[in-house]
Amino acid sequence: MKKFPLLIALALFMAAGCVNITYLGQKYKPTKHVTFYYSWSLVPTDKYTVIGKVVEVADEDAWSSEIHNDLIEKAKSVGADAVVIDSMHRKIAGRVVNYSNPWVDYDDWNCQNYWGGPFYYNSPMSYWGTSGVNVYYNYNTIIKAKFLKLESYFKDHPERKGQVE
């Protein structure tokens, strides 16, 4: 009975959108506040220095708030003061082909075809042809961003610019 709550938690975790973050850059002491910019045109470039690049891949079930929050949490953990989005696009991650026929009563799977042999409605080569073929695409959202550190940090600690803590 103790395993039941664990199974429910696991099922909810599996049902949630999957997000994968890859970071390449410098690490500093974790920060408590991160500013989020959706465009470079909004960033005061004289105020920040780029400390790293990040690529986040989220499946189509991931919420935009989940993507946003994961970027913020990763930025905090590496000591960034700001995140700026470089690009965001969708990419086909996979395809599902479903052979079905909307006009068929699936309770009657093995009826006789016109020539007297077995007739399988679910077959792509059935009498109905390919009229029941549905193709569904799975998409991933790919976000490329940069993590920024305040210039004032490096003015106070010039020896730490470019160093990993």
Topology:
Elements (H helix, E strand, L loop, with lengths): L2 H13 L3 E7 L9 E3 L10 E12 L4 H15 L3 E18 L10 E3 L5 E3 L12 E18 H6 L9
Parallel strand pairs: 2-4
Antiparallel strand pairs: 1-3, 3-7, 4-7, 5-6
Outline the structure in words.
The protein has a domain at 17-94 and 138-157: Translation Initiation Factor IF3 (2-Layer Sandwich). The protein contains three helices and seven strands. The protein has helices at 3-15, 64-78, 151-156; strands at 19-25, 35-37, 48-59, 82-99, 110-112, 118-120, 133-150. It is α+β, with helices and mostly antiparallel strands and 165 residues long.
Summarize it.
With 165 residues, this protein is an alpha+beta fold. It is built from three helices and seven strands. The protein has helices at residues 3-15, 64-78, 151-156; strands at residues 19-25, 35-37, 48-59, 82-99, 110-112, 118-120, 133-150.
- How many strand segments? 7
Oligomer: single chain
Which stretches are low in confidence, meaning pLDDT under 50 for 5 or more residues running?
9-15, 118-122, 126-130
Please work out how many helical segments DSSP would assign: 3
CATH level-1 class of the domain at 17-94 and 138-157: Alpha Beta
Estimated share of beta-strand residues: 35-45%
Briefly note the CATH topology name of the domain at 17-94 and 138-157: Translation Initiation Factor IF3
The helix content is 10-25%
Characterize the overall form.
elongated
How would you spell out the order of helices and strands?
Answer: HEEEHEEEEH
Structural class: alpha+beta
Distance between the termini: 46 Å
Mean pLDDT: 76
Rg calc: 26 Å
CATH architecture of the domain at 17-94 and 138-157: 2-Layer Sandwich
